[in-house]
Amino acid sequence: MSTTLSPSTKADLIWKACAACFVPALIWINSLSNDLAVLKARLEAAENSLDSAAAEIKSLNKTTTANAATLASISKTLERIDKRIEDTRADIRVLNTRLLSGGVK
To answer: What is the mean pLDDT of residues 37-63?
Structure first.
């Protein structure tokens, strides 16, 4: 029992077999394309976040440098004030000693 198929029937069967594989492949490719688009959007969002964080870090570094300079200046000023207070205390001790010993000389 042999069945011979006409050329148009063979072509139709081949087309149906290709379509049976081709359509799912296209659906799979489409879903991969959608996944890639989502991943690309996430990557761009992550890059934007990193760029923003880098800009904030640069700004913080500038602020930190400025604050360090200000603190150094404040520290020098406090050291001068401390020195003047010590000098004033020493002068007061000398004056007290003179007063207690009988008068200012």
So the answer is: 96
